Amino acid sequence: MAKTKPGKDLDSYTIRGTNKVVRPGDAVLMRPADSDKQPYVARLEKIQADHRNNVKVHVRWYYRPEESLGGRRQFHGAKELFLSDHFDIQSANTIEGKCTVHSFKNYTKLENVGADDYFCRFEYKAATGGFTPDRVAVYCKCEMPYNPDDLMVQCDECKDWFHPSCMGMTIEAAKKLDHFLCSDCSSVDDSKRSLNSFPLSPSVDVKEVEPKRRKR
Predict the structure, then answer these.
(1) Cα separation of 58 and 56, whole Å?
(2) For residues 200 and 51, which has the higher predicted lDDT (pLDDT)?
(3) Which of 67, 68, 44 is nearest to 57 (CA)?
(4) Could you tell me which residues are beta bridge partners of residue 38?
(5) What is the rounded radius of gyration, in angstroms, for the C-alpha atoms of the chain?
(6) Neighbours of 167 (CB within 10 A)
(7) Residue 105: Cβ-neighbour burial (10 angstroms; 0-12, 13-18, 19+)
């Protein structure tokens, strides 16, 4: 039996039909088998060429909230991704473009969010639906984690953040505020609220599921 020659590691790859260069560590958009779907997002781990000069990429997939076992939830941002433990090998020809996956902190500081800007604040276990971290801070009376797509206003006294709708305000009115006190701080009977956290991972055993992506 003939031995398979090991692939040659490449430092970079030029996306076919473009002058864009990607390297290990970059986030890329990958063409799905179904043209009606959004591009998949992956992190390049390694680029290799075989003895016939066919280029393959080793990737670690990002999942969108709707692709996770728990589905999309109210606090998930429109550009949010989860870095999964799902690794794969794909043809480099399936790379459509390059994108940027920001940390959650850096994403919230962007003045303008472009089409190729995403953010990630959780790692995701594809088989079990578990998250790391599995609990996050909550805000507002609704006690939900922060969604960077939603406007929030900060109380001048307790420094907590609130959704205008939860405080009976319109977004337009909230934008005009110079000062704001939440209902607790403006109340005569002011009481301290306990700090809570929001569970993310399933609390029950979940059967193992097959990855959605197919090798190409």
Answers:
(1) 7
(2) 51
(3) 44
(4) none
(5) 22
(6) 18
(7) exposed
pLDDT digits (tens, 9 = 90+) for 172-185: 999 888 889 988 88
Q: Which two tokens stand for residue 194?
A: 């306990």
Residue keyed to tokens 């560590």: 25
Closest CA to 56 of 88, 84, 26: 88
Can you spell out the DSSP letters for the chain?
A: -PPPPPPEE-S-EEPTTS--EE-TT-EEEE--SSTTSPPEEEEEEEEEE-TT--EEEEEEEEE-GGGSTT---TT--TTEEEEEEEEEEEEGGGEEEEEEEEEHHHHHT-SS--TTEEEEEEEE-TTT--EES-EEE-BTTTTB---TTS--EE-TTT--EE-GGGGT--HHHHHT-S----HHHHSSS--PPPP-EEE-S-SS-------SPPP-
- For residue 4, what are its two tokens? 């398979």
The reported pTM is 0.79
> Which two tokens mark 183?
């209902």
